[in-house]
Automatic annotation (TrEMBL):
GO terms for molecular function: hydrolase activity, acting on ester bonds; transferase activity. This is Alginate biosynthesis protein AlgX. It is found in: Periplasm. Keywords: Alginate biosynthesis, Periplasm, Signal, Transferase. It comes from Rhizobium rosettiformans.
Length: 460
């Protein structure tokens, strides 16, 4: 059975569950429906499933689940997405960086025993939820992407000695315990890869520190609908302390001070960005490699990766490993192929010397491409020359006078790199002669246009 067919079967099973509950078992729906028939809450919570901003459901032991994100069974992880990640991995590997992709599981995939029976009304079934996660990891690894299953170890060790679960009860993020278990699984996987063979590990010890104040929009919204105080978003917190740093404080010499040591670049979402969980610190502890954290809260699925991979910093100093954490419910196909063209072209970094261009206006430059043989696999890199720009508009003019306009914009939460990789994938070969790029900031003599490749020369 192919992975594609299996995914279809799983999706059909989830749909069948919903149909049976809604049609074939009306008695169950009546006894567990809304209003007065709904189960009582341990915190006096009311109408959680009807909150417009974020529908929630109360589980066991004070664990609250988001209905849409935490209980869903269908996740948009297509074969095309797998192929895009495989192309990215190959492009990075060609320049000495190994991609580690970490699909972050939902609360329900890690803590199915705390999901209330009422969740079945929304189609949730624990076995299917687990198999869908496993299927994503399996398909990625079959395509050559080093994807790490962190759901299984988090499920098997989902509570620490202090009684803290892998996830906060009244928030959707993982706790330090969850981050610890996930980081250990990632560390084990990295240590088994060929790229780790010439790494000289550095010892990082975990030291308990006072937990920082943690604001949770989910808990704040939840509390408005509950009489008693719901669980606070706090936990035992730790920081990673490099061994020679502690020795230096005691007067010992730093024997690790080499600028050539391996590094890890962590790319991720708010899960990787929260100090209270300190995922990056646990990665240092379990991998023995210093981690530079480029994660962005609120950047959605592509915010942190585009911010980092298009930066001059990445091009000039590539990490040995790039860990990309992304919640499994994030749709990596949501914006089509444009983000992937940028990611793969920047990962490969095979760009031509700047093509001759002239200033068109204060904020624009123009180049003649009539004599250049471009293909739909090529990408135009527009580099304003600094980090001041967040938007570039490409105006393509054909020999027949046809004008096409496209824009690339970095939102406020993203890092502004001033570098934009514009894919020619939607244009027929030879369909334009002239390209004008207008930035949202003045151009200078350092502003350039180049042609970049997206193919590694290998078959996908």
């Amino acid at each position: 059975m192919t992975p594609v067919r299996k995914s279809h079967i799983l999706a059909s099973s989830a749909l069948a569950t919903i149909i049976m509950l809604a049609v074939g078992n009306p008695a169950s729906a009546e006894t567990t429906g809304g209003g007065d028939a709904a189960p009582s809450s341990a915190y006096g919570c009311k109408s959680l499933e009807e909150i417009a901003e974020l529908q929630m459901i109360e589980g066991k032991d004070g664990m609250f689940f988001r209905i849409l994100a935490d209980l869903r069974l269908q996740h948009a992880f297509t074969d095309q997405t797998v192929d895009h990640l495989a192309a990215m991995a190959k492009a990075l590997e060609k320049n000495g960086t190994t991609l580690i992709y970490v699909p972050l599981p939902t609360k329900s995939q890690v803590l199915p025993e705390l999901v209330p029976a009422r969740a079945s009304l929304y189609g949730f079934e624990a076995g299917i939820a687990t198999e869908i996660y496993d299927d994503v990891v399996r398909r990625l690894n079959e395509k050559g992407v080093a994807a790490v299953d962190i759901a299984t170890p988090m499920r098997e060790n989902n509570r620490n000695g202090f009684g803290e679960y892998s996830f906060f009860q009244a928030d959707f993020h993982w706790t330090a315990h969850g981050a610890d278990i996930a980081a250990r699984a990632i560390g084990d996987r990295i240590k088994g890869l060929p790229a780790y063979g010439d790494v000289t590990p550095v010892r990082f010890d975990m030291k308990e520190v006072p937990p920082p104040e943690e604001f949770s929009s989910m808990r704040e919204l939840l509390q408005k609908h509950c009489i008693s105080h719901v669980p606070t978003v706090t936990a035992h917190t730790y920081e990673a302390v490099r061994a020679e740093d502690a020795s230096a404080e005691a007067g010992s010499m730093d024997i690790f001070g080499s600028g050539d040591e391996a590094t890890v670049a962590l790319i991720g979402t708010s899960y990787s960005d929260k100090p209270i969980s300190n995922f990056s610190g646990y990665l240092e502890h379990w991998t023995g490699i210093p981690v530079e954290n480029y994660s962005i809260s609120g950047g959605n699925q592509f915010g942190s990766i585009l911010s980092y991979i298009t930066s001059r910093e990445f091009q000039e100093r590539r990490p040995r490993f790039l860990i990309w954490e992304n919640p499994i419910y994030n749709n990596l196909g949501q914006y089509g192929g444009a983000p992937w063209a940028e990611i793969v072209a920047a990962s490969l970094g095979e760009c031509s010397a700047p093509v001759p261009a002239k200033g068109k206006s204060e904020n624009a430059i123009e180049a003649d491409f009539s004599a250049t043989k471009l293909s739909h696999d090529d990408v135009i890199l527009a580099d304003i020359g600094s980090d001041v720009s967040r938007k570039a508009t490409f105006t393509l003019t054909g020999a027949d006078g046809t004008v096409r306009t496209r824009s690339i914009e970095r939102g406020d939460r993203l890092r502004s790199t001033g570098r934009y990789f514009f894919s020619l994938g939607g244009f027929p070969d030879g369909s334009f002669d002239k390209v004008e790029v207008t930035f949202d900031a003045p151009v200078s003599e350092t502003t350039t246009l180049s042609i970049c490749k997206t193919k590694t020369g290998e078959q996908s």
